[in-house]
Amino acid sequence: MTFSVPVLVRGYELDTQGHLNHAVYHQYGEHARWELMRAAGIAQDKFIATGVGAVVLESTIKYKRELRGGDEVTVTCVMDWTEGEKVFRFHHQIVKLDGTLAAEITVVAGAMDLTARRLVADPAGHFRGLAENPELLGL
């Protein structure tokens, strides 16, 4: 299932060439991830109250087309789980209104026990137990 959220490229997010600053792509992905979690019924405070926090272990962007101020985009978010792994992946596409793919982001993440400072062994089970709509998370 593909989740998406609309975003408007704002002027203060641009670099000196008038393009969307590279770091902001990461912020768009982060925004989409938390909106997906919220839609699934897992607000940030609910997640943190379990003593577990989400951690990004790796984030890769493939830039396809430039984005400029005023561009309207859709940021997609799909979760990918592999049974028996402590990590999972988020796949994002940033797509302009005309259908042009502007960027692809892949994030490797984990769910960290905030006391033990270790990744939980079954992150899918943790998310499934918290979610009101686990199907949005690919579970």
From TrEMBL:
It comes from the Bacteria. Keywords: Hydrolase. InterPro entries: 4-hydroxybenzoyl-CoA_TE, HotDog_dom_sf. Pfam families: 4HBT_2. GO terms for molecular function: fatty acyl-CoA hydrolase activity. The keyword ATP-binding does not apply. The keyword Hydrolase applies. PANTHER family: 4-HYDROXYBENZOYL-COA THIOESTERASE FAMILY MEMBER, LONG-CHAIN ACYL-COA THIOESTERASE FADM. This is Acyl-CoA thioester hydrolase.
